[in-house]
Amino acid sequence: MKILIVEDEPSLRELIERELRGEGYVVESAHDFISAETKIAGYNYDCILLDVMLPGGSGLELLERLKSMGRRENVIIISARDSVDDRVHGLELGADDYLAKPFHMVELVARVRSVLRRGRSGGALTIEFGNIILDPSSRRVKVEGRQIDLVKKEFDILLYFIQRPDHLIDKAVLAEAVWGDYADEADNFHFVYAQIKNLRRKLDEAGATAEIRSVYGFGYKLTLREE
Questions:
Q1: Domains in the chain: how many in total?
Q2: Does the reported pTM lie above 0.70?
Q3: In a 10 Å sphere around its CB, with 0-12 CB exposed, 13-18 middle and 19+ buried, how is residue 107 labelled?
């Protein structure tokens, strides 16, 4: 899953980045209003951590623009301004949660997990498709009740697909979602092909009733196997 941190204080931003990367998330960051606006316009995220007071503008204005665009990212406001008015205004604009500074990293991680679970899986602890059961919190995958071992990127790819069953996913969109900014530096998508190949093999060997199907010239989609 991919997270954008919008925070102008460098030490806090770096601390949050390190903590969330340690939890297995793909993390990008922006330090002011303009850079955050550029990121939001160009990329999609599963969750945005949004400071209210930013150089060049207000985080609440960014939130308002995000929602006016019909975007569905989960948003957690992180702000030193712990006033009732700010909190209510943020929630009314569409924020999913509000966390006042200073906060403990363990609480931030818990809040991120909570909004992601509510946003992508309807509040369920696990996500199911066919006979595949995926637990985002423990990062475990089971097929027919038997756990299969996936490396980090294989898990991230499967999670991205299983949240969008039967949706056609462009390989560039998949690469950007799973690898983040690093995908822009690649000359080709061989790293995507390799991970997809390994993931397919493991699902096949486990007897999964769903498969990642190639759609020539477009990308991939996770769909149930034809009987």
A1: 2
A2: no
A3: exposed
